[in-house]
Amino acid sequence: MTDRPDAVPLADVDAPVTIAFVCVQNAGRSQLATAFAERERDRRGLDAVKIVTGGTDPADAIHPVVADAMVEVGLDPVDREPRAITPDELATCDVVCTMGCSVDGICPATWRGDARDWNLADPHGADPETVSGIRDAVDSRVRALFDELEAGLDD
After folding, report:
1. Which tens digits make up the pLDDT trace of 51-90?
2. What percent of the chain has a predicted confidence (pLDDT) above 90?
3. How far apart are CA 26 and CA 64, in angstroms?
4. For residue range 12-28, what is the model confidence (pLDDT) as tens digits?
């Protein structure tokens, strides 16, 4: 949950909902989060949920060890490419999940959405076992986010 006193809690957001997953390179954690979120959205039939991702300084490609970790759990990394995320995109988001960086320097000053910093280790250069642990932590957080989102949309 956000620590910003003027933020709109997720439970108070009406459909449609836009969620952004952001990290520096958009080559690891945020790509994992996006893939898991797309899967959760589809599994739960939450068509009103839009998912965007990007980085503040995008890499040229997804980290190979992250792509391997995605394949291990049935996620397809083939068409996923790091990209920049813009303040204009973020301004339209209801929830912004960062992977270990603050939204303070990312989101526009007037943005009042729900900011979450998941504070996950960077998989860049990590061994496969460590990346698998990061992947599983991302999956768990995405599921919890969708549990919360689904409960709010049911109200």
Report:
1. 999 998 999 999 999 999 999 999 999 999 999 999 889 9
2. 70
3. 13
4. 555 689 999 999 999 99
Buried b (16+ CB within 10 A) or exposed e, 42-66: eeeebeebebbbbbeebbeebbebb
38 to each of 16, 30, 43, 82, 121, how far by Cα in Å? 15, 12, 9, 16, 22
**Phi and psi for 151 in degrees, rounded to 5?**
-65, -40
Half-sphere exposure of 152 (CA within 13 A, CB side): 19
Which residues make beta-bridge pairs with 21?
53, 97
Q: How far apart are CA 8 and CA 71, in angstroms?
A: 36
pTM flag (> 0.85):
yes
Q: Which residue has the tokens 């973020």?
A: 90
Structure tokens at 136: 């599983």
Amino acid identity, position 135: R
Angle among Cα 150, 112, 40 to the nearest 5 degrees reads: 25
- Domains in the chain, start-ordered, CATH in brackets? 14-148 (3.40.50.2300)
